[in-house]
Amino acid sequence: MADRSKPIRVAVVGAGGIAQGQHLPGLRGLGNRVEIAAIVDMDASRAAEVAAEWGAPSSYSSVADMLAEVRPDLVVVCTPPGSHADAVIRSLDAGASVWCEKPPTLSLAEYDAIVEHEGSGGPYASYVFQHRFGSAAQQLRAQIAAGELGAPLVGICHTLWYRDTAYYDVEWRGKWETEGGGPAMGHGIHQMDLLLSLLGDWTEISATMATLHHSVETEDVSFAHVTFESGAIVSIVNSVLSPRETSYLRFDFADATVEVEHLYGYDNSHWKWTPAPHVDAAVASAWAPTQNLASSHAVQLEELVGSLERGERPAASGHDGRRVLELVAGLYQSAFTGRRVRRSELTPDNPFYWSMNGVRSKESADV
């Protein structure tokens, strides 16, 4: 458990737009519960500029140097996907917990390797999946757990976004080796994590994907049909080809339909509860949340810091952070092989455990 008489000392790795637009404001919003102790970026001058802007006393161009000198309690990783695993493992080995941007890693193998560097009581690695932390999602999660809406039956999880060709001018985007996949990995992963945080683990997936427009190695659109342990069936679409952008999730329960439509974040106004005809109106009137917390990095960060202060494993870590990568791996395996894939197949003897396009195996990884 952290000493609550002292602030949690935080280092931010990666001084780009996501760090300055989301993570650093979220940290500052926690006041004296945290101290921004260091900024790290490969561009030393940018690290120094961002450190000066946000009041961090030190800046570095090397994660290893920062860890040796600063000894932070928490490291926030905001770098491109291909560098996540190395930064997370180095931080855990130095005794720091980690909060890492999505996607967590490029493969299930990398994710499991990271878990091996956690301690039984910490440090822990957790991941940025902020959409599950808004008040409406938390209300729905509690209702599902209590059975208030009846059994989950049918679902829709659509991430219909638009990215122009210039978006892929960034060297690491659109490549299996450095991004790990297309919109299923880098865009729809947020909505799919929200889906899984509500409905739990899946059992089978059937998927197709295509590269219809962009000149990239990965897909630019995918469709999937997923069966959950509860028996619920869900349709998932991930696209970067959709000019009218939207993120839409719908859950049909025996006693209600619950929907949310937003783009990059929601509050309660984006959600709607519709009771089935047989449900008493007085019962349905109590379903909507009263507290209004928007989904945001700041809301998840506050929960994370609270977990560290209590010495608890944070949400979106361990199995709770891994399940969306399992879904993505199953989606890609099904799309590449043209067959239905069971979650139980995603073991180390499966090449899709080692890379999302199935080109690696345990043997090649050991070379």
From TrEMBL:
Keyword Phosphoprotein: no
Keywords, alphabetical: NAD
Limits of the GFO/IDH/MocA-like oxidoreductase domain: 138-246
GO molecular function, one term: nucleotide binding
Keyword NAD: yes
InterPro entries attached to this UniProt entry: Gfo/Idh/MocA-like_OxRdtase_N (IPR000683), Gfo/Idh/MocA_Oxidoreductase (IPR052515), GFO_IDH_MocA-like_dom (IPR055170), NAD(P)-bd_dom_sf (IPR036291)
Protein name, as recorded: Putative dehydrogenase
Species of origin: Arthrobacter pigmenti
